[in-house]
Design brief:
Length: about 90
């Protein structure tokens, strides 16, 4: 996929965990990203970041995780990238 490392894989599962803080603290969110090669990646995220990632995951997008660059890629926001289709051909 263009601009991503060779370690980039499609996301198959995405989980959000909230870890409670002290009684007066807000706690911390973590995202668990599972890729098509069954690798699990855990990243800390703010509540705002989790909200954004959930919105992207619920949209008609294809998510990919690049562990080398620690980048979550959301493809097909507008149009279809060829690497996201079974046949590899881009749709307009």
């Amino acid at each position: 996929m263009p601009g991503a490392s060779e370690a980039t894989r499609r996301v198959t599962n995405l989980n959000a965990n909230w870890v409670a803080g002290s009684d007066e603290g807000d706690g911390q969110f973590e995202l668990m990203i599972v890729t098509e090669d069954d690798q699990k990646h855990v990243v800390r995220a703010s509540a705002a970041a989790v909200s954004t990632v959930v919105a992207l995951a619920r949209a008609e997008t294809v998510l990919a995780w690049d562990p080398t660059n620690r980048t979550l890629i959301a493809a097909n926001l507008v149009g279809t990238m060829s690497w996201t289709t079974a046949g590899g051909a881009a749709d307009s």
